[in-house]
From TrEMBL:
Predominant location category: cytoplasm
Function: Involved in mRNA degradation. Catalyzes the phosphorolysis of single-stranded polyribonucleotides processively in the 3'- to 5'-direction.
Transmembrane segments: none
Region: Disordered, residue numbers: 691-727
InterPro entries: ExoRNase_PH_dom1, ExoRNase_PH_dom2, ExoRNase_PH_dom2_sf, KH_dom, KH_dom_type_1, KH_dom_type_1_sf, NA-bd_OB-fold, PNPase
Record's keyword annotation contains Protein transport: no
Regions of compositional bias (Basic and acidic residues) in chain numbering: 711-727
Annotated HAMAP family: PNPase
Species the sequence originates in: Alkalispirochaeta americana
Residues noted as binding Mg(2+) in the record, renumbered to the chain: 483, 489
Name of the featured protein: Polyribonucleotide nucleotidyltransferase
Catalyzed reactions per annotation: RNA(n+1) + phosphate = RNA(n) + a ribonucleoside 5'-diphosphate
Cofactor: Mg(2+)
Gene symbol of the encoding locus: pnp
């Protein structure tokens, strides 16, 4: 067993091997304070012929026992990966995948498992380092190691590997991964920060990443295995030069057809024509595969050369040009808010739905139970790229949706000021580059169209990179082909004031600070242009919510009075809820929230609750309802859940023999409070002709109404009831 220890932030990261999972190609048990991750790396026994990609799968998982919890639900065991686990899988995969050789041609699987969680220190960055170390000390060829840290800016101070509490307070949170040569991945969110702060955070992370990489090298020197061989390259094609001479002029024309589908058709035709032309000379299947790979290389060379040397892109744009943009809002008549955002051949339909606190997403994981009142769901159906396929939610949908969620959540109003649950759904209808950024733009437009009081509109843009090592070109608003054939995909979202989210993936070993700065500056100019186009359609939230959205009223009462509003066994709140068709929520702080589809019903329910809090006053007249009749009088409800006794002697100026001669059950009458004794008992008097003047009125001043039920059956009238409702 061997260990290495490195100080990161306020805690020691300990990397241990040789005690657990010894049959894997590589295994690391990593601990950081109270969090621990066991990461394993394995590969298949034999290479698979014909692979032209890295067959890597990353399966990060969190065990509930890590936090001393038993899983919720009917089945008390871990099930399909949660969104959070999928996102960590992507964090591990993206910086490591470019460092595996396609020539290895074996199935690769990395399984980091969180086995201890202290709920103070996030285990995701621990898993990233553990995964890299497991591969680095194994016999799997790997051009690593990779280091990873989280950096937060809290009150102007940059903190490495902050706690959950520090993350919650931060204005900037990023995860940075890199090798000894440079940065390979950045992902995070912010609250409208400037580009300078982001660059400073990356520089801070770079120093720690170098130390982490050195620690992994130290462990490999102690116990690392000899690397397995790569598959030898086949002999070069004898006719490679002939294929290049034939195909290159055709690609130089086909790669620059303006429209996406026509360009794909033209490129496909060049490939088919070239293979057909050299079919006899190629002969063997191996040679055919080599020819296909060569044609792909030629296409890439043509596109990259045009960008670097001519500053000319596939669709004829210059490096900084943004494709034409159109924005439309409220295109769906029955939804709470909608927007259609089209940029070139990328189109997103965003739909916002407003709900109540009962619609919040309940999150159950090892970080602790919590509720989420903003959800963003991203859908990428196959028809958006002109293909057939399975509809569903995969890692792509979860990852892109999370990025857009981060981009928009920073401009949402506080829950106290806008107590709605928000669900934003993005339907990608067309895709040719950066549909996640189209989601951000469409989502911002949809929320403003629905009247959600966001602080500022948010826009997003995807940047690309082409470099030959000596020179580079940064591309604004990249196409799908430029993403596939280029060296970087850098997405930046923000308002006119600053950045709200970003994500950088590269296919080369690293990017220089010069490239990062140029990309951020160019992204800001592009973002400003898109925001201007969005402002032409709508530049601030609508004053009124959609007529189809639920209405929410919030008011405060003394916390000691909450019990009065709820009533014995919830009787009072249930009665009011059923009467007005509303939902009611009480908080210990004294906050009362009423949810209703109709504003008038919500106002009436609020008035009913306020009536419960009214203190009865002697001499004031109240409308009442007869609840009980006895030989000596009647008990009359004069305020919600408040009754008083009207003695038989207080019912008329003349003597009466029986209470039933004047009153009946359910009858509506006007009463005056004549006495409140020391025990709080209320004595009432009916209002009748000849009664002394001078009483103040809390309602009608008319006498007893005809007997009968409240609806006026058996000859009763409802006119007084309507007056009472208005009061």
């Amino acid at each position: 067993m061997q260990t290495v220890t490195i100080r990161i932030g306020e805690q020691d990261l300990v990397l241990e091997t040789g005690r657990m999972a010894k049959q894997a190609n590589g295994a690391i048990f990593a601990t950081y304070a109270g969090s621990a991750v066991l990461a394993t790396a394995t590969c298949s026994d034999e290479p698979r012929e014909g692979l032209d990609f890295v067959p890597l799968s990353v399966e990060y998982n969190e065990k509930y026992y890590a936090a001393g919890k038993i899983p919720g639900g009917f089945l008390k065991r871990e099930g399909r990966p949660k969104d959070k686990e999928v996102l960590v899988c992507r964090l591990i995969d993206r910086p490591m995948r470019p460092l595996f050789s396609k020539k290895f041609m074996r199935e690769l699987q990395i399984v980091p498992t969180t086995v201890s969680a202290d709920r103070v220190n996030p285990p995701d960055v621990v898993a990233m380092v553990a995964a890299s170390t497991a591969v680095h000390i194994s016999d799997i060829p790997f051009d690593g190691p990779v280091g990873a840290v989280r950096v937060c800016s809290v009150q102007g101070e940059l903190i490495i590997n902050p706690t959950f509490d520090q993350i919650a307070e931060s204005e900037l949170e990023i995860i940075v991964a890199g090798t000894k040569d440079g940065i390979t991945m950045v992902e995070g969110g912010a609250r409208e920060v400037g580009e300078e702060l982001m660059l400073a955070a990356i520089d801070k992370a770079r120093e720690v990443i170098l130390d982490i990489c050195r620690a992994q090298d130290e462990l490999r020197d102690l116990i690392g295995k000899e690397k397995l061989p790569l598959v030898a390259d086949p002999p070069p094609l004898a006719i490679a030069d002939d294929i290049r001479a034939f195909a290159k002029p055709l690609y130089e024309e086909a790669c620059f057809v303006k429209e996406k589908m026509a360009r794909q058709k033209a490129v496909k035709a060049v490939k088919e024509k070239s293979l057909e032309h050299f079919a006899e000379a190629l002969g063997e299947e191996l040679h055919l595969q080599q020819a296909k790979s060569l044609l792909g290389d030629i296409q890439q060379e043509v596109v990259r050369h045009s960008i670097l040397e001519k500053k000319y892109r596939n669709d004829g744009r210059s490096l900084e040009d943004i494709r034409p943009i159109t924005c439309e809002t409220n295109i769906l008549p029955r939804t709470h808010g909608s927007a259609l955002f089209t940029r070139g051949e990328t189109q997103a339909l965003a739909v916002i739905t407003l709900g109540t606190m009962y619609d919040e997403q309940i999150m159950d994981d090892i970080d602790g139970d919590r509720r989420e009142n903003f959800m963003l769901h991203y859908n990428f159906p196959p028809f958006s790229v002109g293909e057939t396929g399975r509809l569903g939610t995969g890692r792509r949908e979860i990852g892109h949706g999370h990025l857009a969620h981060r981009a928009l959540e920073g401009v949402l109003p506080k829950k106290e000021a806008f107590p709605y649950t928000l669900r934003l759904v993005s339907e990608i209808l067309e895709s040719n580059g950066s549909s996640s950024m189209a989601t951000v733009c469409a989502g911002s437009l949809a929320m403003m169209s629905a009247g959600v009081p966001i602080k500022k509109p948010v826009a997003g843009i995807a940047m690309g990179l082409v470099t030959d090592g000596d020179s580079f070109a940064v591309l604004s608003d990249i196409l799908g082909d430029e993403d596939h054939l280029g060296d970087m995909d850098f997405k930046v979202t923000g308002t006119e004031e600053g950045i709200t989210a970003f994500q950088m993936d590269i296919k080369i070993k690293n990017v220089t600070p010069e490239i990062m700065k140029a990309a951020l500056d160019q992204a800001r100019r592009g973002r400003m242009h898109i925001l201007e186009k969005m402002a032409e359609e709508i530049n601030s939230p609508q004053d009124e919510l959609s007529e189809h959205a639920p209405r929410i009223i919030t008011f405060k009462v003394d916390p000691d009075e909450i019990g009065l509003l709820i009533g014995s066994g919830g009787k009072t709140v249930k009665a009011i809820s059923e009467k007005f068709g509303v939902q009611v929520n009480f908080e210990d702080s004294g906050s009362v929230t009423i949810y209703s589809k109709d504003k008038a019903a919500a106002d009436q329910a609020k008035a009913a609750f306020e009536q419960l809090l009214v203190e009865p006053e002697i001499g004031v007249v109240y409308p009442g309802i007869v609840k009980r009749i006895t030989d000596f009088g009647a008990f009359i409800e004069f305020l919600p859940s408040r009754e008083g006794l009207c003695h038989i002697s207080k019912m008329s100026a003349q003597r009466i023999n029986s209470v039933e001669d004047v009153l009946s059950m359910g009858q509506e009458v006007d009463v005056k409070i004549v006495e409140i004794d020391k025990m709080g008992r209320v004595n009432l008097s009916l209002i009748y002709e000849g009664m002394s003047e001078g009483s103040s009125s809390h309602g009608s001043d008319r006498g007893p109404r005809p007997s009968g039920n409240r609806g006026g059956r058996d000859g009763g009238s409802r006119g007084g009831n309507r007056d009472r409702d208005r009061r």
